[in-house]
Amino acid sequence: MRTVVCAEPGHMTLEQRDSPxxxxxxxxxxxxxxxxxxxxxxxxxxxxxxxSYPRVLGHELAGEIVEVGSEGDPDLVGKRAxxxxxxxxxxxxxxxxGRTNCCQRMQVIGVHRxxxxxxxxxxxSII
Length: 127
Description:
The chain contains two helices and eight strands. With about 130 residues, it is mainly β.
């Protein structure tokens, strides 16, 4: 699949990568739309302290669900979806008190983990 990679600050590449497989608690999303925002521009410019390179950017994404894992809802296949890019641990004090936005181990798609600038993206099926 085609994947846009920020290899290092100031250098983007278009790579061919294997299509992702779908784990039990995951879904595959065919990317239909993706936004480019200040976070991506700062990563490209090397002004984003949370990034490591190379990184697939893109945390503002939407698409079509093409596959769900064995723990997912098969009725979701073919549905449109958008992604909330913040992944919380579910275990820290903030998460246990329902304040997942304050997670101590928060990870952001396209920042701490590879994002959606690709043809097909693997995501948690809790979308």
